[in-house]
Design goal:
Elements: H1 17-30, H2 34-46, H3 48-91, H4 100-126, H5 130-145
Helix pairs in contact: 1-2
Length: 146
């Protein structure tokens, strides 16, 4: 039984020359007949599973692109912060350590910086990981749409 004989129905349709060329090329690439290519294409188009899979792949690709953008934005922010700190440390004048006023300013600065670090540590402990936050937000969006 040949490839052509296993199909029980006959369907005729018209198409463009370009589509026929693509169809012929796909048949040659896969080593099957043009009828087999058309049958596979129709089944893929008409079954719901393939469409859902394609949507899932597209959604994952979108997530990957979003994460890439977030990484690039984070890298840019980090570079900007480092440039600002470098500028501040190279341009700002030193506080004279010999004078009593200078020593008092340094001590207050050390205390403020220490309290800032403690507060920062406490805030960081409360933050969720980035991946958990991103996927949680996407699940909430999908739940709202569905």
């Amino acid at each position: 039984m040949t490839e052509e004989m296993k199909y029980s129905s006959r369907l005729m349709f018209r198409t463009t020359a370009n589509t026929k060329k693509l169809l012929s090329q796909r048949a040659v690439d896969e080593g099957i007949s043009m009828n087999e290519v058309l049958n596979k294409a129709a089944v893929m188009y008409l079954t719901k599973d393939t469409t859902e899979t394609s949507l899932l792949i597209a959604k994952l690709s979108d997530i990957q692109n979003s994460l890439g953008k977030m990484r690039r934005r984070d890298d840019l922010r980090e570079k900007f912060e480092l440039d600002v700190y470098q500028f501040l440390f190279t341009v700002m004048p030193e506080i004279p350590e010999e004078s009593k006023a200078g020593i008092a300013v340094l001590e207050r600065g050390k205390q403020r910086f220490g309290s800032f670090l403690k507060g920062f540590r406490n805030r960081v402990r409360l933050l969720k990981p980035v991946m958990e936050t991103v996927f949680g937000d996407m699940l909430e969006e999908e739940a709202g749409e569905g």
